[in-house]
Amino acid sequence: MGSYGGHVLPGSFFIFFGVWYVIKYSWSFLRVRTNRNEPSRCFGKIPCHGIVVEGVVKIFFISVGMLVELFYPGAPGGRLHNDAGNFTHPMNWQHATMYFFFGISGLADIVSHTARHVIPAGIDRLFGGLALFVEGYLFFFHLHGRSNIDTRIHILLVLTVWPSALFAFIECLVMSKRENPPHLRDAPYNSAYRTRNMVLAGLSCLLISVIYCYSILCCNLLSIVSTLSTEFPLTQSHESAI
C-alpha cells in the first residue's frame, strides 16, 4: 500500500515504539539512579524482561505489516513480477523490505536477552540501527514521480531516520564496552536522541498519509463535481427556466 494506509501503519508503529522508549529509558535511568535492580515481571511472579516483550510485539506488528503490504487486495500477492514479466508494485515491496529488517531487529531484541552470556552486548542496538538505516535508504529512493511537498516530507523523514540509525550504532559501541559503569553503558543521551527522532519519523509518516488522504478526497470531489456538471448542465437548466 504505497499510499494512505502504507504510511499510517509505519507511522503508528514508530510513534508507539517512540513513546514506549520514552517510558522504558526514563524508568531504566531512574532505576540506575536509585540502585533498584530487581528483575522485571510480566504476570504475577512470572519473571521476564521488557526487551523480550518488546521483541515479540515488534515481530507481531511487522508480520501484520508485511501481510498487509503483500497480500492485501490490490497488493502484489507475494509476486515480484506480473504476467508480462515486469516488476510489480515496487512501493509495496519497499515497505515489506523495511518491515523485514525491523522483524530481524525484533528477533535480535529477544536474542540479546535470552543469550546475553554468549553474544556481545548491544546487539539489539546494532540490528535496530541497521533497520533504521535500511528504512532511510529505501525512502531516499522512494521519491520518483511525487509532488514537491510529498518529496520534501519524505526527505524530512530520511533526515530523522538516518540520525536515529547513527545514534543506535553509537549505543552499540558504548554498550559493548563492559568496563563502562552502568549509567554510561546504557547511553541515556543517545537513547533520548534516537527516541525523539523515532517519534518525529512517525509524525512524518502520518503527515504523508494525510497528504495522500487530502489528495484522494480532492480527486473524488472533483470527480463528483464533474459528473454532476455533465448530468445536469447549467445551460440546459437556464434555457428551460426561460
TrEMBL record:
Q: Provide the topology term for how it sits in the membrane.
A: Multi-pass membrane protein
Annotated transmembrane regions: 12-30, 51-72, 92-111, 123-141, 153-176, 197-217
**Major location category of this protein:** membrane
Which top-level group of life is the source organism from? Eukaryota
Query: Where in or outside the cell is it found?
Result: Membrane
Q: Does the keyword Transferase apply?
A: no
This protein's UniProt keywords:
Membrane, Transmembrane, Transmembrane helix
PANTHER family tied to this protein: EPIDIDYMAL MEMBRANE PROTEIN E9-RELATED, TRANSMEMBRANE PROTEIN 45B
What family is it from? Belongs to the TMEM45 family.
**Name under which the protein is recorded:** Transmembrane protein 45B
Biological source species: Ciona savignyi (Pacific transparent sea squirt)
